[in-house]
Prior knowledge:
Bound molecules: calcium ion
Oligomer: single chain
Order of helices and strands: EHEHEHEHEHHEEEEHHHEEH
Structural class: alpha/beta
CATH class of the largest domain: Alpha Beta
Helix content: 40-55%
Radius of gyration: 20 Å
CATH architecture of the largest domain: 3-Layer(aba) Sandwich
Largest sheet: 5 strands, parallel
CATH superfamily of the largest domain: Response regulator
Mean pLDDT: 89
CATH topology of the largest domain: Rossmann fold
Number of domains: 2
Strand content: 15-25%
Amino acid sequence: xxxxxxxxxxxxxxxxxxxxxxxxxxxxxxxxxxxxxxxxxxxxxxxxxxxxxxxxxxxxxxxxxxxxxxxxxxxxxxxxxxxxxxxxxxxxxxxxxxxxxxxxxxxxxxxxxxxxxxxxxxxxxxxxxxxxxxxxxxxxxxxxxxxxxxxxxxxxxxxxxxxxxxxxxxxxxxxxxxxxxxxxxxxxxxxxxxxxxxxxxxxxxxxxxxxxxxxxxxxxxxxxxxxxxxxx
Length: 232
Ligand code: CA
């Protein structure tokens, strides 16, 4: 699962430039052009990082940032504010909006990318690193190779994505619906039972003999990567 970034920017040329460059770096990108629309979307789904313009129609970036910090779900969401001029940046800094970083327009794209990655590394090291490890299982996001106890494990593309999804957030329980969204994508209308089928395949592929099952089935809730397994 790639880190998800929401870009809230009403200048289309700029939001497209950001989308292009972020996607090229392997991020999943969602663009919102209005502050109020972004606020509604953030109630549905919390990304891994927010790039937030200061001047926005609907609701200003500052006000949105303030509201984000008041909600438990988004209290720790990393926010980088984009501002038009350095004097604005100084003013915003003084307003203590709760933003993690400020970038002044026009900015250099490589510098912004570096800041995005630096903040993500701090807030979510598991998500940005190419090597994921849980117990005796290792997954390399660059080569798509998986090994358990030193032996190579071969998985189909869906099982690979499922395992990557679980390993990027060990311990967290995902509903079948969340797994469908995260692994199959929003636009895919797949039956929820499909999730059970692929989790079953993943288990069979990854467990040999008496090896422990890394996936927990949580009745009435969904599935998780067993946190006891992950830290073993
Ligand atoms: Ca603007």
